[in-house]
Design a protein that fits this description.
About 10% of the residues lie in helices and about 50% in strands. With about 475 residues, the protein is mostly beta strands. It has one domain: Porin, CATH 2.40.160.
């Protein structure tokens, strides 16, 4: 009976999200309440405005002084051609054509319910994406979720199909109730997978030579992973007084939202998460609690006829009580590190270098990062938020290591249970971590350009409306 009441509370609150969620995502997203209808239509839209303050790059020099012999060395014309151009991180995605843009960022209609005649033992969840984002980069509409859950085995509920992976907290929560407009850099870059294939420059075009850790010239294929995959997940939760313990293990095909196996040539992932929660009071998403969790993901990625190991893992915690929220998470990665397009500009044609997506394939390549954030709902309709996140890529290579850090100042206004407005201001910074390594390697040309391009990053203002229907 307690579980039935809890499930009913969760389902009732799902479309009437409060300011901050303290909940068990496996309960909320994978299951229906007792007495649920065979189908319930629902969804949300998120029109979003973004303004980047970053300026064009105008200071890539014609020559630099060689650290080897002190002579002036010419900077390649293919790199200098991007003077006057705006770096990709100062443009609005996914179009990457303007520094300011108003767009229907997300538009997700869905349906969920229980299968008639199964004694409510089988439920389903389906959601589509029609907005303008990286999930729809190749098609105007895609499925983001299409799964069924079988609740027959005590202690082992089974979900089959396309759905969220049991990763970190930020990756698991529904975007319609996120406290910030944009994901942290560490979650987006390390967990929101970009699928790649080998790439060869077009005739007559060249790209900058890689002189640090070995990297592969690549091209993006398919949509981003969206923290989702097609597979089988076994999970459940267990209550012991005020304590709740949850586990989840998912075997998946490592292709993101693509139901085919075209992206990864038969390789698979195994992802697992465990968590422990102490509930202060309440139930469902409105409950007040503190949760600690850990997760691990491991699998292979096919690239150029070879399989490479990809590992992601993290630990974190979240506290919510009396309108105060505090959370943080540490994430690290080994292998298949997506570095960035190089140079980080839209292609302007010859004689400029052709931008290529570089990927560090081998498991010796590493990255890590973390975020810390807090929120305070100081009035029934108002909340203020503050977040710091940091990502260090290629920490195994002094020459290649880059650090991105962001302070996010945010505010939310809850006009009604289904209508919310959010405003974020992000103070962004990108650094070459070891400038001295550029000199040691005798490659000051690329090191100087990397510092100049990264230094052009600007702050970002975002405004978003969320309407749940």
């Amino acid at each position: 009976m307690k579980k039935a009441i809890l499930a009913a509370a969760m389902a009732a609150a799902f479309g009437h999200a409060p300011a901050s969620f303290a909940t068990n995502w496996f309960q909320l997203q994978n299951n229906e309440q007792p007495g649920a209808a065979p189908y319930t239509f629902w969804g949300f839209i998120q029109p979003t405005y973004t303004h980047n303050e970053g300026s064009a790059v105008n200071s890539i020099p014609a020559t630099v002084v060689s650290p080897v012999n002190g002579a002036n060395v010419a900077v390649p014309a293919g790199l200098r051609a991007y003077n006057g151009q705006t770096a990709l991180f100062n443009l609005v995605g996914p179009d990457l054509s303007h520094g300011d843009q108003l767009q229907m960022f997300r538009a997700r209609p869905g349906v969920r319910g229980v299968i008639p005649g199964t004694d409510e033992k089988i439920n389903y969840f389906a959601l589509a994406e029609l907005g303008n984002n990286a999930l729809t980069r190749e098609r105007e509409a895609v499925l983001t979720d299409a799964a069924m859950t079988f609740n027959y085995i005590p202690g082992a509920r089974i979900r089959v199909g396309l759905g969220r992976l049991p990763l970190g907290e930020e990756a698991m929560q529904g975007v319609q109730i996120m406290d910030y407009i944009n994901f942290t850099t560490v979650t987006d870059q390390l967990l929101n997978e970009r699928f790649v294939a080998p790439y060869v420059n077009a005739p007559g075009r060249t790209s900058p030579v890689v002189v640090g850790a070995p990297m592969a010239m690549s091209k993006i294929k398919g949509a981003i992973g969206g923290y989702r995959d097609v597979g089988v997940e076994v999970y459940d939760w267990f209550n012991r007084g005020r304590w709740e313990y949850t586990y989840a293990v998912m075997a998946s095909q490592a292709n993101g939202i693509d139901f085919s196996d075209d992206l990864n040539s038969g390789n698979h992932d195994v992802t697992a998460r465990v968590q422990a929660t102490y509930v202060f009071q309440g139930a469902g998403p409105r409950r007040e609690d503190v949760t600690a969790y850990a997760w691990h993901q491991e699998g292979k990625r096919a690239y150029g006829g070879t399989d490479y190991t990809r590992i992601r893992e993290g630990i974190g915690a979240k506290y919510l009580r009396h309108g105060v929220r505090v959370s943080g998470e540490y994430i690290r990665a080994k292998g298949m590190i997506y570095v960035a397009p190089t140079p980080q500009f839209n292609d302007i044609g010859a004689p400029a270098f052709e931008p290529v997506d570089y990927v560090a394939l081998d498991s010796s390549n590493k990255a890590d990062g973390y975020y810390l954030e807090a929120g305070w709902k100081f009035a029934p309709k108002w909340e203020v938020d503050l977040r710091y996140d940091e990502l260090s890529k290629m920490t195994n290579s002094a020459y290649d290591e880059r650090k991105a850090s962001t302070w996010t100042l945010g505010g939310q206004y809850f006009y009604s249970p289904k209508l919310r407005f959010a405003l974020n201001y992000e103070i962004r910074d990108i650094k070459v971590v070891n400038p001295g390594a550029q000199i040691t390697n005798g490659q000051k040309i690329q090191g100087t350009a990397a510092e100049i391009i990264g230094g052009s990053v600007g702050n970002r203002l975002s405004a978003q409306m969320t309407w749940v229907f």
